[in-house]
Fold FAD-binding oxidoreductase.
Amino acid sequence: MEQRDRDLIAQIEAIVGPKGLLLGRDVTARPHLSWGRGQCPAKAIVRPGSTSELSQVMALCHRWGQSVVPWGGMSGLVNGAQCEAGDLALSLERMNRIEQLESDAGVMTVQAGAVLQQVQQAAEEAGWQFAVDLGARGSAQIGGMVATNAGGNSVVRYGMMREQVLGLEVVLADGTVLSSLNEMLKNNAGYDLKQMFIGSEGTLGIVTRAVLRLRPRCSSVQTALVALSRFEDVVTLLRRLGGELDGKLTAFEVMWQSHYHCLVAELAKHPAFLPTEYPFYVLVEASGSDPKRDEAHFMTLLESLLSSGTILDAVIAHASEQAAQLWALRDDAESLIKHLGPVAVFDISLPIRTMEAYITQLEQRLAEDYPASRLITFGHLGDGNLHLGIGPVEDKTGVESLVYRSLSEVNGSISAEHGIGLEKKPYLHRSRSEVEIQLMKKLKALLDPKGVLNPGKIF
Amino acid sequence: MEQRDRDLIAQIEAIVGPKGLLLGRDVTARPHLSWGRGQCPAKAIVRPGSTSELSQVMALCHRWGQSVVPWGGMSGLVNGAQCEAGDLALSLERMNRIEQLESDAGVMTVQAGAVLQQVQQAAEEAGWQFAVDLGARGSAQIGGMVATNAGGNSVVRYGMMREQVLGLEVVLADGTVLSSLNEMLKNNAGYDLKQMFIGSEGTLGIVTRAVLRLRPRCSSVQTALVALSRFEDVVTLLRRLGGELDGKLTAFEVMWQSHYHCLVAELAKHPAFLPTEYPFYVLVEASGSDPKRDEAHFMTLLESLLSSGTILDAVIAHASEQAAQLWALRDDAESLIKHLGPVAVFDISLPIRTMEAYITQLEQRLAEDYPASRLITFGHLGDGNLHLGIGPVEDKTGVESLVYRSLSEVNGSISAEHGIGLEKKPYLHRSRSEVEIQLMKKLKALLDPKGVLNPGKIF
């Protein structure tokens, strides 16, 4: 380490104390890439204990022109927290307290390092729920989830992270503390500045505190797997469940036959809840406050959909274990990834009316250019969000170009919920115009003129 | 009119044509202040017929340093569209088409001048609803509603305007067209630029098109007026209805006794649906898809709330006429304003836990400083939003200071849904810190360096 770096580190240690700083092997022991890969090459990992400490650290880094890569729980999938040798990594893992929970109003104030599962549990103990849920709940931190505008399985009912954030405290690139810890659903006093930071992937500021909106806890959950023969029936099903379950539709997860057949028939990793010959499967979840009433409502609706021919077959979970099995099938990306061999995975969104033609065309183009590869399709259809797995793939760049070219044609997005990070940066222009990208860059230059915050990410 | 102005007007007319320009009496005939007051003193009203025309007009105004005041339907209440003699007013009233309605997905693309009622009707004809509703539905334009992040009566269920906007097209101060006409619920491809413009009151850009999220149309509505003795019961009621009506609670409108007693007993303007001696009244609305099931659910819940003593009395609307009468009572601000004499009205938000003490303290402070005035309180309590009427008031500034001083103490907002405009500009610092206001000004300078867009508004 050079003298200049030793000086900087010493000054940082004077601010955050020895517990606030990791060096040497404690740094390389940490993965910094997606899927838990990589040995972090940063100079140090800074772990401030308070907003005030972080503010001082950022003021120092800003003066020195020192790049800082903010970390959340490291469950992102686009290398948004990747470090170079010259960087400092910044972890808020010591700032993980739930500071306040207003149980009358359903409002919770947390430090950014609080882990999702901890937040979910605290909400539930107070008779509420925190409505964003995702597989990485045991590691994902609220600050990272705000910075990436996390999505997950219940967006169709509750929205993404953006819709759960009432207020934020953010440390800006120069150490300024921007405190907008609003608690109200309505506040039109000037620009809603927090919106800028949500989904900005740590490039505009560092989230240190969030005021979260909680939702009423549901005491009843209905889960079913249904089979359909045509995509237009999937659309009809979504519309009828959206309308006739009133506010209760919580998840609408589609699996193309490619997905279901692979996991159930080829790999035999999951029980054959339904025969494998149907073109489409949808995992439906509804939740409400009265088990008896809700179940009757759900059953009546499914019967009506069966008798109208919209759905051809259905299996209903009669206990939470069965529901868990259905979700395990839906969530078993790991088996698919292993099975496909070298795999390219995608997280796209597109208008629902364009989905069927898009997938059909993509299959054709893949068959022509990459005849050895297959396409597996599933995702949060209610949000316009599909996940694709394509493999085996040697030429990952070629497949990416193919997927994103077709996507541009239907005005889709190269990232529905994962963000851009480094991984999707080469394709940003596929979903955003030059005018949009220029304005993003202007915002970046305004808020971080020296480019110290998460440099090189997004654009 | 000076030569320079005549030259500018001629150039604008060459872009927008004679239909696109109003001059002289056609300008002064138009009110430009809140409540339909004032004779517009602007040089001209420009009415472009397309985004391209507006883009050219803005490029010209930017070169000339000509200030432009964007107008919506002129139903705002904070003088956000007020003009000075040197300004050009800009109306999008000719750009009022509904361009696309995806009836499978519930997505509608409209030009900014489309009127709310027209959008609501088109949505309903397609089996959907547009979920923001407010009294000025016959005049409020979508562009203005986006620019002011309009709220209204159903925010507790569907959110404000921000939550209904999937995509925007915006003309920037220099005429650049920023097209972000996203249709998907999820799109994390870089910064979500549209968020900056929502609620910016025409100071950062001019909304020309919006992609709107529609919601399933409800075929059943339950409406009740209930009476309560304690504020804590109002909070309990909100929490129980929020939890036990599942997603169906659509409105939760509170009236302090001051409001109900004034309209029903003193003015006798409305039927005495319930006796006037209760401390609190709440207008509750729920809506769903099955009249019979929804009514049974609603009645069971109300009975339980009556038997637990949370509510003391209730009247249920058994037909839409009765529901309309209850809403007419809630919405009769006009009678209150007339009755109070010279009146100061407020649109504030504050944490629900602080409301009772805030109102009690405000009443005490008013009694001390303005013994001739009375306070009338009502509003969208489910959103933390109260409307206050205080009158008779000669010293409006003094009363404003009193209200906003108390509000700062509880971290409340001087504007829940109306915005800042010119009217609340002197008090912005009561709800926003100096750091926040400085960042707002930096954003303004970035997007409108010459200050041509709605100059002087907000800060």
Residues 102 and 108 of chain A are 6 Å apart (CA to CA). Chain A touches chain B through 93 residues (CB under 8 Å). Residues 220-331 of chain A form a domain with the Alpha-Beta Plaits fold (CATH 3.30.70.2190). The longest strand of chain A covers residues 220-228.
